[in-house]
Amino acid sequence: MTPKQQHAFDKSAFKISMVQHLTQLGHAPDTAQLRDWYLALGRALAEHTTSDLVATEHDQAIKQAKSVNYLSLEFLIGRLTGNNLISMGLYDAIADAVSELGLGLTDLLEQERDPSLGNGGLGRLAACFMDSLAAQQYPAVGYGLHYEYGLFRQSFHEGAQQEAPDAWREPEGYPWELVRPELSQIIGFYGHVEVVEEAGHTYRQWVPSLKIQAMPWDLPIVGYQSNTVYPLRLWEGRALTPFALDAFNAGDYTHAQQADIDAGNLTKVLYPNDNHDAGKTLRLMQQYFHSAASVADILRRHLEAGHALAALPEYETIQLNDTHPTIAIPELMRVLLDDYRLGWDEAWSIASRTFAYTNHTLLPEALETWSEALIARLLPRHMEIIFEINHRFMQEVEAKWPDDVAKKQVLSVIDDKGERMVRMANLCVVGSYAVNGVAALHSQLVKRDLFPEFDALYPGRIQNVTNGITPRRWLKFCNPDLSNLISEKIGEQWPAQLEQLEQIAQYADDTAFQKIFMDVKKRNKQRLAGWVKEHLDITLNTDAIFDVQIKRLHEYKRQHLNLLHVISLYQRLLNEPDFDMAPRVVFFAAKAAPGYELAKSIIYAINKVAETINNDPRVGDKLKVVFIPDYRVSMAEIIIPAADVSEQISMAGKEASGTGNMKMALNGALTIGTMDGANVEIREEVGDDNIYIFGLDVDGVSELRQKGYQPEAVYHSQPLLKAALDSLLDETFTPGQPGALRPVFDSVMGSGDPYLCLADFADYVRAHNDIDRDYRDASQWARKAILNTALVGKFSSDRSIRDYVNNIWQLEAIKR
Ligand code: CGF
Predict the structure, then answer these.
(1) Which residue among 171, 223, 425, 713 is least crowded, i.e. fewest CB within 10 A of its CB?
(2) Could you confirm whether 382 is annotated as catalytic?
(3) Where are the domains of the chain?
(4) What are the CA-CA distances from residue 699 to residues 41, 443, 613, 653, 696 (Å)?
């Protein structure tokens, strides 16, 4: 706690406030349940953050400074209460206050449901970035959607994924959010474009036929020890047309509610796809609704602060998190052209100096395109503007490469090879002053493979900003024992200056420190094992290697490669009398998009293999496999501090960055990984001896493809691999149901193993053997683990944000 905050906190007043909130919720202290108390705690704390939010909003210095507007369809913020307590410097004081009320703070925090308003890395990155912006006091507003249902809740029925809706706010509402009706906006859809004549000029004007109200809900982003609270503004769709009371009274209930139904659907659900473009109309409606409301709010703030419209790029920058909010570019153009009546050149000069775009993926199936017909129907004026942007852009291309049809074809915003489609990524590059990839390798591939022509046309526009994670949530909050140990050694500044962790490296060879460090790891493993026992009734050996793969389920992430290794260990334990291995628990946690059949088959296969291995008495506690259901931020907070080994095994060139890799390394896990995404930079930081790199690199992948890859040949040449694969076809793991796991077998054999699992298998096994050997040398292992924690300071999202600030956004910190 900072001295200022310590002084400001009045324990007895806070306890009174909690009891008052409890009473307002309709409960009495002697009969209230834990959940009631949690809500009272959240509301009592939110009083403080709300007043800081309002004060920050009205701060003249901030109004006169440049801000970043982070536009993202996803913010996977996780539970806020514990994290906000850390940021406010009140964790211990509140623990003390609630204990005087007879409550345990950790029990209260467990009552909070995760706001799962994101799918995976992209949404979690947005949350880390907001945390780092507030901590470093770079003026910022996050803009997202207020989904009624977050990412589905996952359970398993006989091994198969089941999905249930996640009504994260129900039934009492979320204590941290604040509705701001005074800032609501009206958003149009459909309709037609009219030509208006005024003072000898003709203008175009969109007349939408459907209007929906955008109601903002603010969540407080509390800066770590900074007294700065920025809003994460989430738009909710609401019916605008007044409730049809006449129809209701006349008995026409459905019609009376129709407008509510349409508007309410708009932000009802988060699309559960990660790295995949599903192309649904409602999704485009969500994107436009989000973009239009955000652009309107940005302009409102800008003009209310007294700035000229033409000065927008000097005061506001708009970061597009992936292509999902691309439609904000033509929307700003529409407003400038049609509402403010600027000429094209002036409007374009403003817009193209305001937007910047982050690319998160090279996967073709994730690069969004929308059919021209759909955009023209839903947003007719925007389609005209997109055509005009492209027309002028094509002239630029012609000037640079005269008569080069091929260049125009790849660069064009419109893909007219079949049904005409709008390429959102191309529109982003054309309309942004900066484009960035999310790790060094990824940014290089964006330039080399995805956008080489754009890179030639606009040298310097495509940059790199390596992703990062907030050390407040991902070390200080989730791993209090390790945090305390670090603070004892190097002081309390590291959560705000993560580079300082480097000083821990000097203790890597100190046997006493090694013991304390590994004791902390052991306690975290016990905590996770306790959770597994309580929820899944599996008993774990906490001396075993905790080998962890936690991320979305996707073929390119290769959970099935991990599974093949697990099966091979199982078979060796059974079949090779001399085979010895350090005990291992292999953890998986992953959600599959509901429509992604193969991903669901992989989950099913892992669960079936786990069931067999865990119940086979011949294995004892040498090997256990645990699939933790319903992976979410709060679960990650328990798993990550307990990990010994971090699985980052995507096929090289496919994982743009990864951020779980950073979180686990920071908590002292050793990475087994390919030369992909941020693994490459983690290796640079921790050194070759403290990471297990295996498999083909990007060049190796393309060479193999050129030579002609034959998974069958690999299958026949490697007995261990063949045996593991064959077991997927018989009844080993699915008694009475031979072939139930065949889809996984076929995915690496029949359809040609698109992600080269078989090609990398042997080297993956080799790397795991190295891990097995090294883990048995406790002191050497401790040394490596300590060095991982010590040497990954670069991956603080504070550093990522400073890179954005210095190289792209050009903001000044405003200290409060
Ligand atoms: O974004 C991802 C993640 N799946 O959400 N992508 N998208 N889209 C990438 O696949 C990750 O590699 C990356 O770390 C993350 C955040 O940039």
Answers:
(1) 171
(2) no
(3) 64-79+114-467+802-809, 471-795
(4) 54, 16, 37, 9, 8
Report the alpha-carbon distance of residue 375 to residue 659 in Å, rounded.
34
Ligand 1 atom with least separation from CA of 655: 12
How confident is the model over 684-702, as pLDDT tens digits?
Answer: 999 999 999 999 999 999 9
| CB 139 less than 6 A from any atom of ligand 1 | no
Check if 361 has its Cβ closer than 6 Å to any atom of ligand 1. Answer: yes
Q: Give the residues across from 42 on adjacent strands.
A: none
Mark whether 360 is an active-site residue.
yes
**What confidence tier does 303 reach under pLDDT thresholds 50, 70, 90?**
very high
The domains spanning 64-79+114-467+802-809 and 471-795 adopt the same CATH topology: yes
pLDDT in tens, 136-188: 999 999 999 999 999 999 999 999 999 999 999 988 899 999 999 999 999 99
CA of 122 to the centre of ligand 1 (A): 5
Ligand 1 atom closest to Cα of residue 275: 8
- Check if 659 is active-site: yes
In the CATH scheme, what is the code of domain 471-795?
3.40.50.2000
At 364, list the tokens: 């073709």
Give the Å distances, CA to CA, from 241 to 16, 261, 279: 42, 11, 28
> Does the predicted interface ipTM exceed a cut of 0.95?
yes
CB 5 within 8 A of CB 90: yes
Q: Report whether residue 274 contacts ligand 1, using a CB cutoff of 6 Å.
A: yes
**By C-alpha distance, which of 522, 542, 602, 538 is closest to 566?**
602
Q: For 64-79+114-467+802-809, which CATH class?
A: alpha beta
Nearest ligand 1 atom to alpha carbon 122: 5
Regarding the beta carbon of 275 and ligand 1, being less than 6 Å apart is answered yes
Residue 4 scores a pLDDT above 50: no
**Residue 4 bears catalytic tag:** no
Asked whether residue 614 carries a pLDDT value surpassing 60, the answer given is: yes
Question: What per-residue confidence (pLDDT) applies to 6?
Answer: 40
